[in-house]
Structure formats: structure tokens, C-alpha cells
Amino acid sequence: MSETNGDIKKMMIILSKATLENVYAAFILANGARSEGIQAEVFFTFFGLEAIHKKKLEHLHVATVGNPAMHIPTMLGGLPGMEAIATTMMKHEMEKIDMPDVHEFLDILTASGVKLWACQLAMEMFHYKKEDLYDDVDGVLTVGAFYNRGKGEGTHMLFI
């Protein structure tokens, strides 16, 4: 058996979409890893960058179109106002259980040692600058550099 005995040492989470449900899934998993003593890093790529963009992170929405978990027909999900209604309802339910908002959750993650990385290619594609991002982002990396950070036994990668 290997020296890690199958233990998870590090979670490398890739966030590609900044829908409210995807962002919270990534954040909860990263936070849970840290609470279990597991290192955690989140790589924000493509539309996932909105979760760390200063002007966008507090305005994330629930996806109502093409989301089978919404249990509503796609046509209804696309009606004007449906996304806003679903987002408001989700945020209300999250407040009931004292779930932090996105900015506060980022603060919690960085305070616990989660590393936050922006994708260099996506940054260039969307014309973002590091100054556009949440202040405590650890840096901007290429995909290869992110993969190199995950080297070693006991590392798991998760794509959200």
C-alpha cells in the first residue's frame, strides 16, 4: 500500500460556472476539506471567474434554463423574471440556515487556508485584470501551473 494509505491530502476544485448553486457547491466542498484537515485549492476558469470578480460576485444567479433539478419546464425557466424569482428564493433559504454570502464565504475560505486561483487564459479572454478580482485571490495561473500544484499522492481533482 502507498505511503498515504489512500488518504486524501489535497482537493483541487475547478469551478467553470458561476451559477449560485455551482459556486456554493465548490465553496462548501473546499470549506469541508479544510475542516477535515485537507488542503484545498479552487481554480476559477471561464464563467467561474465571476465568483471572484469584485463587480459580479454578489450578483450571481440560479440557473433556471436547462437545470433538471429545478423541476420546471425549460420554457417556464426562460420566462422573464423566473431566474430572479428562483435566485431570491434560494438566497432566502440560505439566509434561514445562516449561509454566508459569496464575499463572506470567500473571506472564510481564505482565512482557513484555501488557495484561490484565477485562470490566466480566461482572464485574457474576458479582458479581466487582477485588480478586478477579489482582493485575496492568490494569483493568476495557467492550467499547467494549476496541475503542477496538484502533483503528488493523495490529491484529488474535482470539476464543477
From the structure above, extract its key features.
globular; five-stranded parallel beta sheet; 6 helices; 160 residues; Hypothetical Protein Ychn, Chain: A
Please, could you describe this protein's structure?
The protein is α/β, with parallel strands linked by helices. It has a domain of 100 residues: Hypothetical Protein Ychn, Chain: A, CATH 3.40.1260. The chain has six helices and five strands. The chain has a five-stranded parallel beta sheet. Helix 5 links the parallel strand 3 and strand 4. The longest helix has 16 residues. It is globular, with a radius of gyration of 17 Å. 27% of the residues are buried.
Radius of gyration: 17 Å
User: CATH-wise, what's the superfamily of the domain at 11-60 and 103-152?
Assistant: DsrEFH-like
Give helix and strand order, one letter per element, not per position: EHEHHHEHEHE
Question: Could you tell me the number of beta strands?
Answer: 5
Low-confidence stretches: none
Order of adjacent strands in the largest pleated sheet: 4-3-2-1-5
Share of helix among residues?
25-40%
Broad shape: globular
Largest sheet: 5 strands, parallel
The portion of residues forming beta strands comes to 15-25%
User: CATH topology of the domain at 11-60 and 103-152, anyone?
Assistant: Hypothetical Protein Ychn, Chain: A
Distance between the termini: 30 Å
**What is the CATH architecture annotation of the domain at 11-60 and 103-152?**
3-Layer(aba) Sandwich
Name of the CATH class of the domain at 11-60 and 103-152: Alpha Beta
Oligomeric composition of the shown chains: single chain
Give average pLDDT, whole number.
90
User: Helix segment count?
Assistant: 6
Structural class: alpha/beta
